[in-house]
Structure formats: C-alpha cells, structure tokens
Write a structure and sequence with these properties.
heterodimer, A: alpha/beta, Beta Polymerase, domain 2, two-stranded parallel ribbon, 3 helices, 8 strands, about 20% helix, about 25% strand, globular, B: mainly alpha, Cytochrome-c3 Hydrogenase, chain B, three-stranded antiparallel β-sheet, 20 helices, about 10% strand
C-alpha cells in the first residue's frame, strides 16, 4: 500500500465519530502492521459487513475463526473491546483501489453463534463451514452448516486449544516387541 | 498437421489480452449440444422416445473420490437427468491432515516444512506467504538478493504448475499425448529446483528471513537453458491444442462463469481473470519486487474452460518474460537477513565463540520469538490469492496459522460451472478449475 493511500485512510477514519480509539464504519479500528483491522461487536457484525459491501468492497477474501482460550490478556485490541474465547476473522477487498480491511469480532464461549455472511457474499459458504468444522463457531443463517473437512461422525472441533495434538502410534519393523 | 498451421493459429487466435483478439466462439460452434431424444429424432429413429416424467429420470451420481479426472480425492455429488448435470456439490476432506493444527506445534523456522506440503504443485508460494507473514510480525526487511531469488523461484514454480495443468487438462479432455509433453517440460523446471533447493518438490527453501541457500554456481546457465527450451515447446502446444478443432469444441462454452458470479463466489486467479476481470496481485498489490519487472496480466473474455486454458498457457510465457528480466536484474549480496534474532551465526563463529554456539543451539531447539500480533499476507499463486493469516502470542510457535487456499475457495464455483452441462463437460470444468486437493483439504 502506498503512503498516500495510508494518509487517505487515516483521513477516512478521523471523520467518523470521535471516540477514544479511531473508528471506521462506526466501529473501533486498529492498525496491525500496516493493515486496517475493524473490531465490530457481534451484534453489529452484519451491519458492518453490509456497510462495507455498500462502500464497494466487492469480495470476501477469507473467513476464519481463532480460539483464544490459551492466550489470555491480548494486547492487540482496542480498549473498549471485551475479549472473548472465540474470534471470527473476515477479510474483504475493494478492487478499485486495492484497499483491504479485516474484521475481528469477539464470540462468547457459552453461545458461539455468528450471523452468516452467506446472503451478502455467497463465497463465504465453504469458509464458514470450515470455521464451524474446525473451531466450532456456529453461523446463523448458513444454508448448509455441516462438517466440511473432518469426517461427518467426528466429535469435537480440532482447532480448539483444549483438543490435544493427535498422534498415531507407529510400530517400526525392528522395534522391540511389547513383551 | 502441416508446417504452416502454427503460424495460422497465431493469426486466428492472437494472444489473449491483446486488443485485436477475435471472438473464439460463433453461432455455428457446438456450444449447445443435443439431448439423446433430439438426437434420436434427428437421426430419423423415433422408436426411442423419452419415457416417464422428468422426475423419474433424475438420479444422484457420486463421482469420486477416487476417479482419474478428479485430480486426487475430490468427490462430487451430481444430480443428473440423463447425461445433464442439474445440481452438484463438491465433497472434500479426504486429504485433510490437520496441517493448521500441526503448524501450532512447529516453530516458525519449521513452519515452511509444513505449509510447503499444502499446494504440492506450487509449494514455493505457500512458503512465501507464510514467510512474508512471519516477517511482517517480526518487522524485518529481507535483503534484495533474497527478494529476487524468491521471485525467480516463484515464477519458475508458476511455470511448472501451469505446465502440470496443461498436462492434466489435456488428459482430462482426451488429448492424452499432451499429458506426456506437459510432465516432460515440468520435469525440466523441477530439475532446476532440485539443483537449487535439493528437492524436486516440498522444497522448504523460502524461509522467514530469506531463503535457505544461495543460488548454486551456474544457475544462470540453467535458467537460460529453460528460457530457450520451453517457449518452442509452448508453440508446439499451440499446434497440438490451441487451434485444434476437437480440443476447442471440447472446451469452448463449457463451464462459463461471469464476472459478477466470480466476485460473489470469491474466485481468484485464472478463474476470475477468465471472466475478463483483470486482477493480479503481482500487478495490483505488488509484493517482492514485482513493480520493477514488466509483464502483462492475461485476461479472458468468455469465462469458459478454453479461456482458462489459454490464460494459463500465456501466463507461462509471461512468467518466462519475468525470469528473463530477473536474470539481468539479480543483485548481489546476502541471501538471508543478517538479523541475529532470526539467522544463526556463521559456521566459523561457532568454533571460536561459546555464545555463538549457544545462540545457534537455541535458534534450532527453541526457535525465535515473534512479537504478539496478527497479520495477513497474500501472494498470487498459480491458482489465485494464497493468503496466510498468522496469530502470534509472543512465543516461538504460531498461536494460530490459517491458510486461505485458492483451490479451496475456487472449488465453490464448480456447481455453477457444471450446471446444465453434460457430465463429460463436467470433467472439463473440474479440470479448468485446476484444484490441488492438498491445498483444498490441508
């Protein structure tokens, strides 16, 4: 991204409502190593994405989820955002000026349900299924929220931090017998 | 075929993206095919009329996961009416090995070993995306020579990957001789990789901070040999396939996608460009040193399987053009950063300094710590935007590593490409998406 673009964006951000931290599209925004990261609360998730779409963001690049249960006390968030166990991360791009934004929303552990973006961006179908399958975040309004990578009868969500790394015991040819 | 055909084909099918490109499709070409019943009527055999209602004839067919045309382990659920595909659903996960989970147990230095096994036809791009994400979090600059080596290797990898596509695409639509030629030329590129990285595939060559080793002596001659060898072979492909009527009828008008659909479905790479939408991260959001080299972004017009074939064929030519420029512009200097935090001390220092030995040991056992934060790095892989979303909690291993696989996302276009087509066209559509299942399932 060029310097002019960065300045433009800074101007963009400052003309929004004056809060403690800068905002864009009415939600707190942070700069993460030069990338624009929006932190909408969960109840404004759809609203923010709708605003982005109306503003020319034509493609949903990525949707994923992170389980932060093993990483308390994160510092890379605006102060007014309350950290929760799960976080859903979505990236969007506007092709005419190449501007990218990333949305991070906090999802509580006791009710991990996020509104689906399928109606706005049909391309998020497989990505939301992957986030559901591996991290266990539900997407409300998704047309076919089923497992996509793991076997259908799998129990649990492997990318949660309380799931141990899997190991398969391997018997080598010359290994001593168990007895 | 006669000697003159190659030149004639050039006349009728100029390079895609050039202004004078003529429409490849006209009213007389076999875009719409006949149904069996219509064919029976036309053949003067009315003894075989269609029976029953349409619902009676509808059936579900499972194609794959072990099927020669599904590029590995893709399974498709097809709703068929006779030979026509109505709805379809790709079923994936047969190659899922939990690489994103594995990444959480590997240090940043071991990370490329893991991600390189995702897209096994273009392994260097996964390594590049991962390394760029780590470097963004570390805030380190990569020396110019490392940047240019990365570009050289990635462009040659794009050539190898697209050659593999030419081979498999030819095989899928029945031009089996193309399979042998595509693999043959790809092997030449892999031979260069073997000389540079030690391996034909799964290189683990691009690492956070630079590349694993400098280019070997004589690399320039080897690269020059490829530049001399491949273009005439590409012209042979033109003779063999591009202007060949059977091949064109097999691909033209098959698997059509329009730009709005491609954007809505988050399709990137040759699929997006085949619809006429010129978007290439190398040009539009230059990383490495792509703003210093000259190349064209190839776009199609119709968004069909033939456009995707032609785009990939011509992207090989553009990549070779970039390699040609890299040969002249390759700077001297370090091939990896001299940041002590990331790069181990040189061998000679270890003999004389205990601290250097300890530092070396720590780097390769514990690994280096990366500051807390999250970032996303994207590169233009042969299949589209390959992104790496990386979260660090300040430790020596990634807290979360997510790869945005272009094949995984592009696969969503498949039901659109196949809808209303024949099952044989479905095979051509799968092939034109060029999915690599290692990256789809990760």
């Amino acid at each position: 991204m060029s310097d002019e673009q960065a300045v433009d964006q800074a101007a963009d951000l400052s003309d929004a409502t004056s809060a403690v931290s800068p905002t864009a599209y009415g939600v707190p925004v942070l700069d993460a190593s030069g990338q624009e990261v929006l932190h909408p609360p969960l109840d404004r998730w759809l609203e923010t994405v709708t605003a982005l779409k109306g503003d020319g963001f034509s493609m949903a690049i990525d949707v994923t989820a992170v389980d932060y249960s093993a990483h308390p006390g994160r510092t890379d968030m605006p102060e007014e955002v309350e950290p929760e166990r799960f976080e859903v991360v979505a990236s969007f791009i506007r092709h005419n000026d190449g501007r990218r934004v990333r949305l991070r929303t906090q999802v509580p552990e006791n009710d991990p349900v996020v509104p689906s973006l399928f109606d706005l961006f049909p391309g998020t179908e497989a990505m939301e299924r992957e986030a559901f399958d591996l991290v266990g975040v539900q997407f409300d309004g998704h047309p076919d929220l089923t497992r996509i990578l793991m076997p259908e009868d799998w129990v649990g969500h492997p990318l949660r931090r309380d799931v141990a790394m899997g190991r398969i015991p391997v018997q080598f040819k010359d290994a001593p017998a168990p007895r | 075929m006669t000697e003159s055909t190659a030149a004639e084909i050039r006349e009728t099918v100029p390079y895609l993206g050039s202004a004078e490109r003529v429409l490849c499709r006209d009213d007389t070409s076999a875009v719409l095919r006949l149904s069996e019943a219509e064919a029976a009527v036309l053949a003067g055999n009315p003894d075989d009329p269609p029976t029953g209602t349409a619902d009676d004839q509808r059936m579900i067919l499972n194609m794959g996961p072990s099927h020669p045309s599904t590029h590995g382990v893709l399974r498709l659920m097809l709703e068929m009416e006779g030979e026509t595909i109505l709805r379809s659903k790709p079923v994936i996960g047969y190659l899922h090995t939990g690489m994103e989970k594995t990444a959480e147990d590997l240090t940043y230095l071991q990370g490329p070993t893991n991600v390189t096994r995702m897209d096994y036809a273009a392994p260097l791009f996964s390594e590049l995306a991962f390394s760029m994400a780590v470097e963004q979090l570390l805030g380190i600059e990569v020396p110019p020579r490392a940047v240019w080596i990365r570009m050289l290797m990635c462009e040659l990898n794009r050539v190898a990957s697209h050659l593999l596509f030419q081979a498999t695409n030819g095989m899928d639509v029945g031009a089996v001789s193309m399979m042998i030629y595509g693999w043959r030329e790809r092997e030449e590129v892999l031979r260069f990789f073997e000389k540079v990285t030690g391996l034909r595939m799964n290189h683990n060559y691009i690492r956070p901070g630079g590349v694993a080793a400098d280019l070997p002596d004589g690399w320039r001659d080897d690269a020059r040999r490829l530049l001399d060898l491949i273009p005439p072979r590409l012209d042979e492909y033109d003779t063999l396939l591009t202007g060949q009527p059977i091949f064109r009828e097999r691909l033209q008008g098959v698997g059509v996608l329009n730009p709005a659909e491609a954007l809505a479905l988050s399709a990137t790479g040759p699929i997006l460009r085949s619809t006429g939408y010129a978007w290439d991260l190398r040009r539009d959001q230059p990383y490495l040193a792509y703003e210093q080299v000259e190349f064209d972004v190839i776009v199609g017009t119709h968004g069909d399987a033939f456009d995707r074939y032609a785009i990939r064929l011509n992207e090989i030519r553009e990549s070779l053009r970039i390699v040609e420029q890299i040969l002249d512009l390759m700077p001297n200097g370090d091939y990896r950063t001299q940041d002590k935090k990331v790069t181990p001390p040189p061998r000679a220092r270890i003999d004389e300094s205990m601290e250097a030995l300890i530092h070396h040991f720590k780097l390769f056992t514990e690994g280096f710590h990366v500051p807390e934060g999250e970032t996303y790095a994207a590169v233009e892989s042969p299949r589209g935007e390959l992104g790496c979303y990386l979260v660090s909690d300040g430790g020596p291993k990634p807290y979360r590593m997510h790869i945005r696989g272009p094949s995984f996302v592009n696969l969503q276009t498949l039901p659109h490409l196949m809808e209303g087509g024949l099952i044989a066209d479905g095979v051509a559509a799968i092939s034109s998406v060029d999915p690599i299942m290692g990256e789809v399932d990760r």
